[in-house]
Amino acid sequence: MLNMRKTMSIVLALVLTVCMAACSGGNNSGKSSENGSSASGTGNNAGSGNKNSNADTPASTGNAAADSGSADTSKEVELSILVPGDPPTNGTLEKVEAKWNDLFKQMINATVKLKWVGWTDWQTKYDLAMASGEAYDLIVVGDWLNFWANSKKGAYMNLEDLLPKAAPELWSEFKEDWPSVTNDGHITMIPETHYSQWTDQGIYYRGDWAKEFGITEPIKDFDTLGKYLQGIKDKKKGVIPYDVTAGTKYEPYWGWVQSHTDALLMEMVPTGFLHLFWGKSYYEKYTAWSPVFDQTFVDEAVMMKDWADKGYWRKDALNFTGDTRAELQEGKTGTDAHHSQTFRGLRATMDQKQPGSELQMFAYADTRGNLMTDSPVHGGFAVGANSKNPERALMALELIHNDPDIYRLFQYGIEGEQYVVKDGLRAQPDGYDPAKSDFFSNMWGARNDKNEIPSKNEYAGIYDMFKEKAAKAKRYPYASFVFDKTPVQAELSALSNVTSTMGPAIIWGKAGDPVKAVENFRKKLKAAGYDKVLAELQKQLDAYKAKVEG
Q: Which is nearest to 334 in space by CA: 258, 235, 252?
């Protein structure tokens, strides 16, 4: 059976390759390859000697298979995949790895080994790995992993010439996304855009309590949220209405801006505790703007001071490090904060631990209907610049993404051991012991809705929620905008220091008179170089507009 799968995979790859070759003459990849392989202006070595010296590329093999558009798989190779996180230590990884390697050997004559970047000081270790020159074949990448910065430094291979040959399914399936992950004419990422997720941060709240307090419609604004919090304060003794930890300290600011303006978050401009710089709106996306220097921020500071004075959160909120999600499940707090992907599981958990709680979500975009799709570069995969087997790596990634058996091994583990499927739903086997059987691979960048098995432990209404979001969301406009921090690096550091020092107290109503606190905050930001960074950002946005719309 597996031999049949191997044969069919090769035939399908050949057919698709011929089709893609016939159709792709005028696409962006063809234009990119006309620029040669020097990657001029990027500093990316992946387009020069590295790319053409690898074992699987046509230039180095010179064999008939490569020349005809298919990869040479005659020699077995081991492929490495770099993932962030700490591996399972209970032996499940080795068992699952053996299963997926049985399939990879049959289908592309390769084995796949995960290499891990531990969570302790993960950002530093990940960036060092990108700069090391080690020959990783596939790498989990994303904007939160400094994707564009590492791409500019040459950590990843250019893929526009390799994808049509080695992974024709991926080349075709992601055709709408390639412009968003192209910079200086080169594609360096296969994005995670076939998995439903949104920039829909928000507040979770108990629907049963909201009804008890006279709130009969879904909460869609901060005023109604305040009514809910006051209801908890008045009627649920011993419950903290809105508990706060280090992980949620920025939530009111982000949420306030999104629910009171149409500004677009620009995370690529780092300013510490608070994101100072935003795009003005979807229709003024090339205008740099800051809510901190708008009346919006004063209004928020005033409300947060009022909420703090009313006791909606603990007095030592800025120092609390407890687990607010566990508190919600125990009935000790009335809120939690994250996005809809977390909500899909948390709602089901709350149904079990707090029966009748009817957990709901106030997504900040609900107020004004300004939902954005997630950035295409939020997550995905790259091929390492020094990979010795880039075509085989892309073949493996195509299987991880599209082959149901391989996909589910990476995402869920072994059927019958890590999960079972009952009535179309994924569940844990009877007698499941997490200590012995829990498995994970942290292969988020290859998630694909079409191969997902709905979980028994997730909210049944989540897919209707996703469909509604998909119908409303606008496409994120800054995926390929790479902000060059070099001219303002000192100012960004100074601004980050100010936001981290003064921001939390203002956001949580602990800075005294809110109007005076904001005024002083603005003065400190100006002294730290705010105007210089704003001007530099606007300059680069103007250039980006000319490139995108020119």
A: 235
Distances, alpha carbon 131 to alpha carbons 118, 127, 168, in Å = 17, 6, 30
Instruction: Mention every residue, 6+ apart, whose C-beta is less than 8 A from residue 392.
Output: 56, 71, 73, 77, 79, 108, 110, 137, 166
pTM score above 0.85: no
Contacting residues for 87 by C-beta, under 8 A, at least 6 apart: 93, 114, 116
User: Whole-angstrom Cα distance, residue 285 to residue 517?
Assistant: 29
Nearest in space to 491 (alpha carbons), one of 455, 535, 439: 535
Asked if residues 155 and 39 have their Cβ atoms less than 8 Å apart, the reply is no
- Those residues with Cβ within 8 angstroms of residue 344's Cβ, 6 or more apart along the chain or in another chain: 458, 459, 462
From first to last of its 550 residues, the chain has per-residue pLDDT tens of 434 344 444 433 433 343 333 343 333 333 333 333 333 333 333 333 333 333 343 333 333 333 335 678 999 999 999 999 999 999 999 999 999 999 999 999 999 999 999 999 898 999 999 999 999 999 999 988 989 889 989 999 999 999 999 999 999 999 999 988 998 899 999 999 998 877 689 999 999 999 999 999 999 999 999 999 999 999 999 999 999 875 555 678 999 999 999 999 998 898 988 999 999 999 999 999 999 999 999 999 999 999 999 999 999 888 888 899 999 999 999 999 998 989 989 999 999 999 999 999 999 999 999 998 888 998 999 999 999 999 999 999 999 999 999 999 999 999 999 999 999 999 999 999 999 999 999 999 999 999 999 998 889 888 888 888 889 899 889 988 989 999 999 999 999 999 999 999 999 999 999 999 999 999 999 999 999 999 999 999 999 999 888 7
Residue in this structure with the two tokens 């020159």, named with its chain if needed? 133
- CA–CA dist 373, 385 (Å, integer): 29
- N-terminal to C-terminal alpha carbon distance within the chain: 52
Query: What DSSP element (H or E) covers 289?
Result: strand 288-289
Helix (H) / strand (E) containing 302: helix 295-309
CA distance 188 to 392: 16
* Angle (nearest 5°) at CA 42 between 69 and 151: 75
